[in-house]
Inverse folding.
């Protein structure tokens, strides 16, 4: 409901505080900074960034300088299901949202702006996993995936395993295998073309990988599915 939305300026102290909210919270630094730590990230939140804390996301925070933040508390009934923490640069789009929230006082206008904000939130599919699904046919590096989440590469591998139960390599191989089997079964493409389609430079490497994963050669699999 509109009355559940809170949009106000807040000041944070040097007292180290740890808690979580039952609602979503969007933090716009107006000046100063905040040291913010969640289970997955540790950042210094400055006016160059905006941070979204998902419901029940435990966080520890404090500020060592003068500060002021614009805080938007978003009730659960306005959120698009399960959301996740989000740390993004303050681009022109977010600057506009911040300015509008600061200048609006009518409940219906703030509700409309909140609905707009909600559409921009990350949901349960992390950005890096979405990136993998769109680019798994190409070479995908840990560094590139970690950058999608604003994580250090060494932490990202552990985080990914926790999210999916698999290593990045195993996850990529699974997607590539499913696509290779689909193309072998339903397309008229040559095995060489299929190998290139899923990121293998030569058919020999593709065949060795496929045999190890599937227990038979690509040709044998193709013939088996014809029966």
């Amino acid at each position: 409901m509109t009355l559940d939305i809170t949009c106000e300026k807040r000041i944070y102290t040097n007292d180290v505080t740890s808690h979580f909210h039952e609602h979503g919270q969007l933090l716009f630094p107006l000046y100063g900074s905040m040291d913010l730590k969640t289970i997955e990230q540790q950042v210094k939140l400055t006016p160059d960034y905006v941070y979204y804390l998902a419901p029940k996301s435990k966080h520890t925070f404090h500020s060592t300088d003068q500060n002021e933040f614009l805080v938007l508390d978003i009730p659960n009934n306005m959120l698009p299901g399960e959301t996740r923490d989000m740390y993004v640069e303050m681009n022109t789009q977010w600057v506009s949202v911040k300015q509008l929230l600061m200048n609006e006082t009518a409940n219906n206008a703030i509700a409309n702006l909140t609905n707009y904000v909600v559409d921009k939130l990350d949901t349960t599919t992390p950005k890096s996993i979405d990136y993998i699904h769109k680019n798994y046919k190409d070479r995908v590096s840990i560094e590139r995936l970690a950058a999608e989440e604003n994580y250090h590469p060494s932490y990202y591998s552990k985080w990914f395993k926790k999210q999916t139960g698999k290593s990045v390599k195993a996850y990529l191989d699974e997607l590539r295998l499913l696509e290779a089997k689909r193309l072998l079964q339903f397309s008229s493409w040559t095995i060489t073309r299929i190998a290139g389609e899923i990121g293998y430079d030569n058919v020999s490497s593709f065949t060795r990988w496929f045999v190890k994963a599937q227990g038979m050669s690509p040709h044998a699999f193709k013939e088996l599915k014809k029966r």
